[in-house]
Design goal:
8-stranded mixed beta sheet; alpha/beta; 2 domains; single chain; binds zinc ion; Metallo-beta-lactamase, Chain A
C-alpha cells in the first residue's frame, strides 16, 4: 500500500513541477546512456562485474592438490637453469605424454623429479621430440652418473617415441654433439622396446603402429592428434621448421577443449599448418618458438583464436639476442597474441643472464580439467604477463 501511495505522490509532484520532472528525466537518460556507452567501450569491465572469468576465456583458479585428480592435465615445466627450453607433460589417467625435454642435459633431473609426481609407474606412454635442437632434446640424453644415464629416454620405459621427420643438411653433414647423443639415446630406447616413428610416418600411417590419432583414455574422450605441416615432406635450412605439431582434443561432458603444440615452428610451417589441417579454435596454445617474433603469426592466431597461451621461456633472456624488443617473449609476439587473449603465462624470468641468475615467472604452469571445467595452477603465481613487473618495465600492452 505504501508503495502505491508513494507512486501517487510522485505522480502528483510531477504534474505540479513539469520542468523539474523533465530535467530529471533528461539527466537520467544521459546517465543511462553514459553507462551503456562506457560498457560498450569497456566490455571487459562489464564482464568482470557479471561473469566469474572477466575475459570469458581464461581458466578458473586451481589448486595443486587437485591436479592429479583431474581428468587431464597439461604441465609446462621450468627446467632448472637460465636457458630457455621446452618440456610439456600431459597426463590423462595413467597415460603420460612428454613433449620435448629441454633445455640442457642437466634439466633431465629437474624434469624427472617433476614428472615423478605424476607418473608413478615409470612408463611414459608417448614421448614426442619436436626437432633436433638441444633446448628440446638435451633432457632426453641427460648426464652420465657413474654407469647410469640421467636422460629421460634412459630413465623411463617409453612405449612410443614420435620424432621430427627430418634434419637440415647442415646437421647431417656436421652433427652436433647433442644430436649424436640423442641418436644414441633413441637407440637405447629402441633396444628397450620403444616403438619409434617420425611425424611423417604417423601422418601417412605408413608404418605398423604409426597413427595420426592416439586415444589417451579407454573411453576415447581424449585424443592426441599429429597435425600435418609441409616440412614433414620438405627439406629446409632451419631445424625449427621440422617441428612436430600436435593437437590434443578432450571431450569433457558438454565441453570440448583443444590444446595446440607447435614446438618452434616458424612462419612458413605455421602457414601450411593452417592450410593443411582443419584447426579448431583452441583453449590453450603453447606460444610458438618460446614467444619469438618469428612465430605465432597472425595467420595461425586468427585461425586458432587462443584463449590461453603458455610460453616456455626465460623472460628477457639475452641468450639469443641483446635486442630488448626481441628477447622472449618478444614485443611483436605480444602485439599479435594480445589481440586474442590477456591470459598469457611464462615459466621463467631472467635476473642476470651472464651471472646465471634466474627465477620463476609463473613457474610450472599447469592447465587441467576437473569435473569438466578448465583450471589453472602455477607453482609461483598466476599473474598474467601484462600485469607483471617485468612486463611493465619492458613491454607495451596494446591488446584486449
Ligand atoms: Zn626452442
Amino acid at each position: 500500500m505504501a508503495g502505491k501511495r508513494n507512486t501517487q505522490r510522485a505522480y502528483k509532484a510531477a504534474k505540479k513541477h513539469p520542468k523539474v520532472t523533465a530535467a530529471i528525466a533528461v539527466i537520467l537518460v544521459i546517465i543511462i546512456a553514459a553507462v551503456i556507452i562506457f560498457f560498450i567501450l569497456r566490455p571487459d569491465i562489464f564482464k568482470s562485474l557479471f561473469f566469474k572469468d572477466p575475459a570469458g576465456n581464461g581458466a578458473e583458479a586451481g589448486a595443486v592438490a587437485e591436479i592429479a585428480e583431474g581428468e587431464l592435465s597439461i604441465h609446462f615445466l621450468e627446467l632448472g637453469n637460465k636457458y630457455t627450453g621446452d618440456c610439456t607433460l600431459i597426463k590423462c589417467g595413467d597415460t603420460e605424454v612428454l613433449i620435448d625435454a629441454g633445455s640442457r642435459k642437466g634439466s633431465a633431473e629437474t624434469i624427472k623429479k617433476y614428472v615423478d609426481n605424476y607418473c608413478t609407474d615409470g612408463v611414459l606412454e608417448y614421448v614426442i621430440a619436436t626437432h633436433a635442437h638441444q633446448d628440446h632434446i638435451a633432457g632426453f640424453v641427460g648426464n652420465k652418473d657413474g654407469d647410469t644415464r640421467t636422460g629421460i629416454l634412459y630413465q623411463y620405459k617409453v612405449e612410443t617415441l614420435i620424432q621430427f621427420s627430418g634434419i637440415t643438411d647442415k646437421l647431417k653433414e656436421k652433427p652436433t654433439e647433442i644430436y649424436t647423443d640423442y641418436l644414441s639415446a633413441v637407440d637405447y630406447a629402441k633396444g628397450n622396446g620403444t616403438a619409434v616413428y617420425t611425424a611423417k610416418e604417423c601422418w601417412y600411417e605408413t608404418k605398423d603402429g604409426a597413427q595420426k590419432q592416439y586415444f589417451l583414455d579407454e573411453a576415447g574422450n581424449v585424443s592426441l592428434n599429429i597435425l600435418y605441416q609441409r616440412y614433414y615432406d620438405e627439406i629446409t635450412t632451419d631445424e625449427n621448421d621440422f617441428s612436430v605439431c600436435t593437437l590434443l582434443t578432450q571431450k569433457a561432458g558438454e565441453n570440448t577443449y583443444n590444446y595446440l603444440f607447435t614446438g618452434d615452428l616458424e612462419k612458413e610451417g605455421e602457414s601450411s599448418l593452417v592450410d593443411k589441417n582443419d584447426l579448431p579454435e583452441v583453449d590453450l596454445f603453447k606460444g610458438g618458438h618460446h614467444g619469438s617474433y618469428t612465430a605465432s603469426t597472425d595467420k595461425l592466431l586468427n585461425k586458432i583464436k587462443p584463449k590461453n597461451i603458455a610460453v616456455c621461456c626465460c623472460c628477457g633472456t639475452t641468450e639469443y639476442t641483446s635486442n630488448v624488443e626481441n628477447t622472449f617473449p618478444a614485443q611483436a609476439f605480444i602485439d599479435r597474441a594480445s589481440k586474442y587473449t590477456q591470459y598469457i603465462y611464462c615459466t621463467t624470468l631472467i635476473k642476470d643472464y651472464k651471472a646465471g641468475e634466474f627465477t620463476s615467472m609463473n613457474g610450472n604452469i599447469v592447465f587441467y580439467t576437473k569435473g569438466g571445467r578448465l583450471k589453472l595452477y602455477c607453482s609461483n603465481n598466476s599473474t598474467v604477463l601484462k600485469d607483471t613487473e617485468w612486463f611493465k618495465a619492458n613491454r607495451k600492452w596494446n591488446g584486449v
